[in-house]
Amino acid sequence: MSRLLQILSWLAGLLGFGLLVAGVAQLNVPAAFIVAGVGLLAWSLLADRAAAAIKTKGG
């Protein structure tokens, strides 16, 4: 059940990010690109920290 919750959480975050960028795009398209870029940079930072926190097995 924990795996399903992780997937649903990831999908909710992805949908929320998409809706945020779409909402900003309705106001100003260049601002939407900036919001998308900042969001992707933050996502890559979180993914990098999560990957570094995973302990490798047997090594």
Automatic annotation (TrEMBL):
The chain crosses the membrane at residues 7-25, 31-47. Keywords: Membrane, Transmembrane, Transmembrane helix. This is SPW repeat-containing protein.
